[in-house]
Predict the 3D structure of the following.
Amino acid sequence: MIVNRKTQTDLTTKDFYYDLPEELIAQEPMEPRDASRLLVLHRESGTREHRHFYDIVEYLKEGDTLVINDSKVIPARLHGVKAETGAVVEVVMLRQRGLDEWEVLTRPGKKAKIGTKLHFGEGLMTAEVIDIVEEGNRILRFSYDKSKGDIYTYLDKLGKMPLPPYITAPLKDRDRYQTVYANEHGSAAAPTAGLHFTPELLQKIKDKGVDIVPVMLHVGLGTFRPVKVDNINDHIMHTEYFQVTEEAAARINATRARGGRVIAVGTTSCRVLESASTEDGKVHAMHDDTGIFIYPGYTFKAVDCLITNFHLPESTLLMLVSALSSREMMMDTYEEAIKERYRFFSFGDAMFIE
């Protein structure tokens, strides 16, 4: 496992607090995807521009590489009943642990003891609690008619998209909480910076001579967990599974060799690149769990620029983007974004940090 890489800092969690008006929390995705706004932050000068996401092409150069996370969000939220009592139970799929065995979050949790049997879709799929692990999560073994498909087939029928708690509006089209290049099932939350891309915009980027390279990190619900300690040095990051193929590593390393920039699309792609790289900036093919925690004071090895959304106050994601510029510059930028009425969080607007 890639463990936390920490640097000394006097910063506290409260140093990353900002006051966000509730009406700026985006409840629905922008239509079309690339019509969202784009705040461009020039780190060297500290200057900012206000554009639209489809203008991102202007800021990319021939020879650059965009690194995207092609993990696919699964309809991970299930509602079932206990076989013995009929009591309603909510299950959120977190991570596959074996053949038809998944680590899940259950609500209510304490009553889902080992041996408890659950029914979903009036018995279309069943599950049994076979273990209790860290933080009270359960391991469920699922059963279903395999002649009619795999577990993802059943999740498509029975599950709902696991939208973050700050989105209260119903999702009209589940594909809108999915990137257009999503490929490998496994995420419990979307890599949201990628939601702004359309197939047409991606083609324009390719036509400009920019390579687009997929890596994979399955996003967990830990991305929404608040930092509960005062000193950020004491925070323990959640872990997530990632993968970099031989081909992806070769193409990313070729970018740097030709003098191009490596541009991470989203904090998930950023965490993959920094987890899979050595001090010389070379990215290596690998698959592992990463608990890397990036905050101001961290020295980036593989990432030159970042496309990202606007993140929650006091979150590890806000700490990460602050590390790429500085805390002061990022907090000033967020203050301007609020003043300019940008839309925040998963369905919100975007920022390009170059």
